[in-house]
Amino acid sequence: MSRPFPPMQTVSTGLVVAVVGFFSSFPIVLQGLDAMGASGPQAASGLMMAALAMGLAAIVLSLWYRQPISVAWSTPGAALLAVSAAPAAGFSGAIGAFLFAGALTVLAGMWRPLGRLAAAIPTTLAQAMLGGVLLPLCIVPFQATVEIPWQALPVILTWFIAGRVHRLLAVPAAVLAAALVVVLFSDGPSVRPDHLLAAPVWTTPTFSVASMIGIGVPLFVVTMATQNIPGIAVMRSFGYAPVPGRLFSAVGGASILSAPFGAPATCLAAITAAMCSNEDSHPDRDQRYWSAVMAGVFYCLFGVFAVAITGFAAHADPMLMGTLTGVALIGVMANATFAALEVPAEREAAILTFAITASGITVFGLGAAVWGLLAGGIAYGVTTRLRG
């Protein structure tokens, strides 16, 4: 029997989930928005709306289905943006690509052939593309140790030591270390009381074939392959029966609604889904959906103060923010690389995808992720046909 109010254990679980989900990846979202040409107010709006979109989606979906449906922003998608060239139309062009990716996600949920096509992309190639996207970001911390050693090393060491205590503590601890470094090296930056709350900033989208294919399609593919589909699998592993099509359309709809305000992509979560779905969330599996609901509430609260977070981050050396982003993604890259190379017969196609994506090339207005996936797909198809 469901309670009208959440059990306290699920409130504390929801807080932990929100802290891990938000503070482990908000620097990546900011990096991605900055690479797309967002101004300071647009980046603050994007961070706020991304947090509100995933928070409200988690609340509504979890209450509606009485299942722990954990929702997130697309961290791999934000990482993709961080290494992509900004569209010719600037941030408005990126907004058009965000909307296109959201529309594809809605369509994947409603039209089974597209959903099956997204699911049919070989896992090795999708993970290789993700690994190639992450490589340039993951080497920044070590470049920073040469350029700004007294700022980068405390963050790296904190991340490493905290990770030995508990893996989920590593990045939040690194965020705290980076905040202290910013205070020490920036003469104590502060955020004025009248700049604590974020305000949404509307950006009218601009649509172009180049940005929709070069940014929108890879954003859709990487989000589906590394977030939405694994998120469904995690829930099923704990005995829940989510309806994939409806959930894909729901998070795609949230992406469409929040995109004009700067949010890149809303998706189902995988890691935090496990946190909400296991027995540590609550002994009674029928009460665990409250953990996802409360995580959504805390995401919304963090989102309201996004302008203070972005204002504080603006005082940081860009290499310091790059260090924070890099350490936050090292574990993701390790998992992606392992998954990409796991099948011996597919390694050549996977490493081709990885290398081309990591190269950062742009040809005919299309970024490296598109060419990497295309080349890897051709190699995969030829190899599979010859093997058959």
Automatic annotation (TrEMBL):
InterPro entries: Benzoate_Transporter. The keyword Ribosomal protein does not apply. Keywords: Membrane, Transmembrane, Transmembrane helix. The keyword Transmembrane applies. It comes from the Bacteria. One of its GO terms (cellular component) is plasma membrane. One of its GO terms (molecular function) is benzoate transmembrane transporter activity. The chain crosses the membrane at residues 12-33, 45-65, 85-107, 119-142, 168-186, 206-226, 247-271, 291-313, 320-343, 349-382. PANTHER family: INNER MEMBRANE PROTEIN YDCO, MFS FAMILY TRANSPORTER, PREDICTED SUBSTRATE BENZOATE. This is Benzoate membrane transport protein.
